Amino acid sequence: MRYNEKELQALSRQPAELAAELGMRGPKKGSVVKRRLVKLVVNFLFYFRTDEAEPVGALLLEHCRITQEEPSGFSISFIEDPERKYHFECCSEEQCQEWMGALRRASYEFMRRSLIFYRNEIQKMTGKDPLEQFGISEEARFQLSGLKA
Amino acid sequence: MKLNERSVAHYALSNSPADHMGFLRTWGGPGTPPTPSGTGRRCWFVLKGNLLFSFESREGRAPLGLVVLEGCTVELAEAPVPEEFAFAICFDAPGVRPHLLAADGPAAQEAWVKALSRASFGYMRLVVRELESQLHDARQSLALHRHSSWKAIPSRCKPQAPDHLSRGLENGYALSRDCSSIGLAEEGGSRPAGSGLAECELQGPTNLLLGRGQSPVSPETSCFSTLHDWYGQEILKLRQGWLQRARGSQPECEEQDRP
User: Fold this and answer.
1) What is the C-alpha separation between B207 and B203, in angstroms, rounded?
2) Pairing between strand B2-3 and B99-102?
3) Which residues are in the PH domain (chain A) (predicted)?
């Protein structure tokens, strides 16, 4: 699949929702923990060698599962292969919870569901569609089902 | 730079909602010259969120390409591009060439430009935050009205599963204070839905009975067919049903249906 690396590199330089140095271990068997600067930008998780400006890699955070891993770490896996995990080690339980919460909310799909929920709640309460004032109530992205691919 | 391509491709092919799709001619393929020439390559494009995928055909089993729609603007393409109905995705980042695309007609061109312009994560986040704040305000004002117009309906019922909601209301359901989700309508500075949905409002006629994660449209709920049923209801009808039943009939109880 072709994608523009420069695009992603530029994205990795954008303001992050969260950024920290964490221990990271790839999904392959026998991989070791490495210190990485991990940066959450929109629905991508970038990871850098601690002294480098360009990311080593990126993870798109759609259809992923965040699981707590003892002692104070978490893993990210994806729906099509749940056993294949990217492991992260935090310095405290608090940091771990902070990251897990942020990553669970990081997907576009999560935002979409939130929006639909709020839209519906407001409509129930006020009898009005809150998106009408913006002229976007008919947009596919704000509908319950969107378009099926 | 590495990317979890297999997962990305899986997401592209999954039945998660697509925001737009259609045939477009593209000049971004491999081996294409730096300036667009020729008629381009006709591909099937699918927009999901802030990701634009291209496929060789509608039935393509793997995406050909991905454009991440962050830090970009979408503009109608200017001359001397000879293509009709062309538009370009232009990136702020230096060294990233605009991505030239052409639709089949003016309506398709307009629809694509609109859809792509609103594709960024930031745009969605803005709308979500706006609605979140509106919901907070609506709940506060509802809570103010609640006390004056309703008295407590004693009941020990558990929160309803979404697809029983309408029946539930007709039978005069009410949530007891013991319901698994906590508390009252007022929720200062509510977090984005997911952590903030655990609310059950006692007796409010328009605040339907929602347990944690039980809302048909909470982000934790995944049963969209249920959501469709639920949306079909008229608000006023629900309110009327509630009013009637609350005055007289016996509340029934039903097991909470965990998703």
Assistant:
1) 8
2) unpaired
3) 15-108
Nearest to B132 among A2, A9, A118 (CB): A118
Cβ-based contacts of A42 with chain B (< 8 Å): 50, 70, 121-122
Give chain A positions within 8 Å (CB) of B16: 62-63, 109, 149
Alpha helices in B150-182 (DSSP H): 165-170
* Phi, psi dihedral angles at B171 (to 5 degrees): -90, 10
pLDDT of A87-131, one tens digit each?
A: 999 999 999 999 999 999 999 999 999 999 999 999 888 888 888
**Contact across the interface for B139 and A125, Cβ inside 8 Å:** yes
Looking at beta carbons, which residues of chain A come within 8 Å of B235?
Answer: 123-124, 127
Catalogue all structural domains in chain B, each as residue range(s) with its CATH number.
Answer: 5-117 (2.30.29.30), 121-257 (no CATH)
CATH of A5-106 among 3.40.50.720, 2.30.29.30, 1.10.287.130, 3.40.50.1370: 2.30.29.30
Instruction: Write the CA distances from A35 to A19, A28, A31, B67, B180, integer angstroms.
Output: 13, 17, 13, 29, 41
User: ipTM for the complex?
Assistant: 0.92
CB B16 within 8 A of CB B2: no
Q: How far apart are CA B162 and CA B254, in angstroms?
A: 12
- Which residues in chain A touch residue B219, judged by CB atoms under 8 angstroms apart? 110, 113-114, 117
A8, A111, A122: which to substitute to probe chain B, counting the most B Cβ within 10 Å? Answer: A111
Domain ranges of chain A: 5-106, 111-140
User: Tokens 């919901």 appear where?
Assistant: B135
pTM value surpassing 0.80? no
Residue contacts between A and B (CB atoms, under 8 Å)? 229
* A interface test, pick of B5, B6, B7 with most A CB neighbours within 10 Å: B7
Q: How many residues does the structure list for chain A?
A: 149
